[in-house]
Write a structure and sequence with these properties.
heterodimer, A: 77 residues, mainly beta, OB fold (Dihydrolipoamide Acetyltransferase, E2P), 48% strand, globular, B: 302 residues, alpha+beta, Alpha-Beta Plaits, 10 strands, binds iron/sulfur cluster
Chain lengths: 77, 302
Amino acid sequence: MPVREGVVTIVQESRFQLVGDDGSAHLFILGRNAAGEADQLAPLQRRQARVRVEYARTRNLIGFVAEKISVCGESGR
Amino acid sequence: MTMHPRAADFPQSDLPGVIPHESELTAGVRIEPGRSYGFFTDTTVCIGCKACEVACKEWNNLPADNLGLTGHSYDNTGALSANTWRHVAFVETSGCGGVRDTVEAPFQSGWLMMSDVCKHCHNAPCLEACPTGALFKTEFDTVVVQQDICNGCGYCVPACPFGVVDVSPVDGKAHKCTLCYDRLKGGLEPACAKACPTDSIQFGELSVLQARAEERVAVLHERGVPGAYLYGTPGAPGATGDLGHLNAFFLLTARPEVYNLPAAPTRPANRVAPSLASGLAAVAGLAVAAAFLLGASDRRRS
Ligand code: SF4
Ligand code: SF4
């Protein structure tokens, strides 16, 4: 599964924007099978936390499905 | 619209933060809980620029969807969906079969454009159908889905008479326009209305918008547009079938169906009692018929 690391800069419902070290921003949607809820995303944005996202591609959508998010330096969830 | 006197207090380009009650400066209305807010969409001034669609996607961090060309005029958005909460419809009216003509009367256009959105119905059928209470009425009299409570059952989808709310297969939750609930709480005008360059989308207090819309219809009638009418105001088309009124209402110049709006939407809850009664009557009828047939076969045997 592809992985991307970066900082969560925008959160709306289950959607978030991740900005990588190269400055590129990508839109992710928390997948239905991800072990996490949308309300856990806002604190990540407030902390400007550095996270590692395992994701899958989507059909007919410019965005990725986040399957697993782990805060860098903490265990995954 | 004249400039709000408070606008002179903020002449600089770089602001230290959000202007308090910014909507007073941009929409001429102060947003306060307990009041009723909505959109008045005047389709006669829509130029089809899709700034509203883009502003909505930007603010709500919604992904681009329906990639590719639909082949339907300049409309490549297609329809409202879980990822598209504003949809600018392009209707080509002149020529045979709806195909754009090459000749037009001077200063006239064969285009009808309308920025469609959730209607934030007064008696919202989606909310009535929701078994978890995820859909609720906010303190601004708008209808919003609470994402942490939605279980993705999809009951709201067929309940909506306008085909607005949609369950996303990606996160399994229902999504639709929130009338920028987060912006309203911060005193900001919704993103689409703020971005609209022609004020086709106007945000404000519902009673003020309804009065303004009536005036606009009168002006259009005077100017020789006799077909202009409101859709979704109390007693008008669109506010039928016990929906009450629509907080997001429209000024149209052709039949509602031309814009893909239902002519007489209804509240599905009105059909619960008749369907239950007809179901019970059918069961009772079948029970009587079975009793009669079993009784007849018993009589034959004895
Ligand atoms: S238009 Fe549909 S989704 Fe919007 S409030 Fe009315 S019933 Fe609900
Ligand atoms: S921003 Fe205004 S003018 Fe542009 S498409 Fe939307 S409603 Fe029409």
